[in-house]
Amino acid sequence: MLDGRPRTPDWPIELLQEDRRPEMPHHTPLIGTIVVGLVLAFLLGAVANRLRVSPLVGYLLAGVLVGPYTPGFVADQALAADLAEIGVILLMFGVGLHFSFRDLMGVRAIAVPGALAQIGAATLMGLGLSTLLGWRFGGGIVFGLALSVASTVVLLRALQERRLVTSSRGRIAVGWLVVEDIVMVLTLVLLPALAPYLDTSGDIVPGFAPRPSDIALALAMTVLKISAFFLVMLIVGRRYIPWVLHHVAHSGSRELFRLSVLAIALGVAYGAAELFGVSFALGAFFAGMILSESELSQQAAAESLPLRDAFAVLFFVSVGMLFDPSILLREALPVAATVLIIVVGKSMAALAIVLAFRYPFGTALTVAVSLAQIGEFSFILAGLGVNLGLLPERGRDLVLAGALLSIMLNPLLFAGLEWLKPWIERREAAAGDTQQRDTEPEAGAPAVTTLSGHNVLIGAGRVGARVAEALQRSAAPLLVIDEKEETAAKLRSNGMEVMAGNAMLILKSANLPEARMLLVAIPDTFEAGQIIAQARAMNPELQIFARAHSDAEADHLRSYGASGVVLGEQEIATAMIEQFARAEAELSRSAKDA
Asked: Which of 483, 502, 403 shows the shortest CA–CA distance to 154?
């Protein structure tokens, strides 16, 4: 600035005339995959729901549209698979929260031999098909094993939608699934150990055979790692995981509590995979099962539910992305045969096994339908088989096609199961005592209560339990509906009439046309609104009271027919004002006396 004018920096004239900095990208592959996948899944899921088809079909078709085999936007398959894995972890964690170690041990007599026998039968059927297609023995074994294991996400989603997870047949299906996962973990470890003795076409190399010591060592190491993980979870996890959750809960931060739930689920799953070689899903399942013994398990399940649902949707989108629709024309007969093995052959094997253990026909049919699909472990196993040179790429394509079609057919099979329910009940009634009785609560509605002029309470949690105590002292009879069997058993021991199950499914059994009042004490406003709408349709004159957390929620419940809504914050404020007024009056009296 020697001449009084500001000096211009020695920059190139182009930069002074125009900003040449590269533009910031408007999206990344991760954001694009999540946004486009979820938006398309929502749109097609809504259409499927409108057509009275399972939304899963819409999610799968969304994956096909964003996959590499259809024109337009192509999502990142690797990222989608990773996001889907998070969904599997969170879903298995949630199931573990409702599945105690006692439940798992209770079904081991049927789950362990049943799963092993069904895996063997499906593997033989897959081996037979591969022989007809001209594949070698190694490829046939991998193909058959891939067809033998059911999808964690599909099975659990189907059971949860029908409120069957905590029922006897649901526990058998989940226990069966856990055994299948353990077998697949062993398979994934042993397969690379056997691969060096197989040529790229799948034949055993002449003059070589797997050394028994190598196989035994690989198997022993895997069993040792899984056993070590179980021991750590039972000894260390049972003590410290609930302690951590309780400590965080007492901090008063809901955000920190939600984060602790996710950290436990994802952290244990990752640690199980990295340190013990256990699958993410199995690790998360045992973390949830350990945490189920805590009093905060129900709150933990509620806090993780939104993320579980979102990532579960991404799982189905990722499955759809792997599917090449042209295979339906190129390999029509092999695809049909593959689907028949999954949907019919494997299911018939499971049906026969469960019936052989003298379980009711309805239980056997539910387990069979639950297992009539394949999923994530099938993809992993097929991919490993191709990488090891055991399974031809054609086999992987058939596994993917079989997975997609079986997942789409599974909701239809469950719908058929509901249609057959009256016939199944008549058949079981005719069977008398020749079969084991399924004494656990099922999704079907129980017998209609004989009470009349009674009050009905839905939900016996922290709020509902106190309401139940007060209503029990009333002259009118009381009927309580709660989703958890443990809570129902405790209330029954106190002399209350209780129905265990989801209120939306068993509300007709509460005899609302003859009831005096209905109190909905559950915190879920969406579910409460559906219950109130059902109740109002059954009895237009019924007095219905519910709880809400905000004015908007209160308006929502009133729009569905609630007679009155209690706002938690409002009642707390009222109680504090009353206590303040009493304390102030007491201080005034003390001052006058002085």
From this structure: 403
DSSP annotation of 510 reads: G
Structure token digits, residue 187: 């398979």
Q: Between β-strands 455-458 and 478-482, what pairing exists: parallel, antiparallel or unpaired?
A: parallel
Helix axes 254-276, 212-232, angle to 10 degrees: 160
347/352 Cα distance (integer angstroms): 9
Cα maximum dimension of the chain: 110
Q: How would you label 122-154 residue by residue, b for 16+ Cβ within 10 Å and e otherwise?
A: bbbbbbebbeebebbbbbbbbbbbbbbbbbbbb
Among 594, 517, 186, 175, smallest CA distance to 367 is for 175
Other CB atoms within 10 Å distance of the CB of residue 42: 15
State the sign of the Cα–Cα–Cα–Cα dihedral 446, 451, 452, 456.
Answer: negative
Distances (CA, A) of 377 to 50, 277, 371: 31, 15, 13
Q: Compute the half-sphere exposure of residue 413: CA atoms within 13 Å on the CB side of its CA.
A: 23
Looking at residue 442, what is its pLDDT?
43
460-510 per-position pLDDT tens digit: 887 888 888 888 888 889 999 987 777 788 888 888 888 887 777 788 888
Residues 275, 273: Cα–Cα separation, whole Å: 6
Tokens of 336: 């049909």
CA–CA gap between residue 230 and residue 276 (Å, rounded): 10
For the cut 50, the answer to whether the pLDDT of residue 16 exceeds it is no
Tell me the C-alpha distance between 229 and 236, whole Å: 10
Model confidence at 226, pLDDT cuts 50, 70, 90, reads: confident
| CB contact set of 96 (below 8 Å; sequence gap of 6+) | 284, 285, 286, 287, 288, 289, 290, 291, 292
Separation CA 410–CA 347 (nearest Å): 11
Q: Which residues pair with 456 in a beta bridge?
A: 479, 518
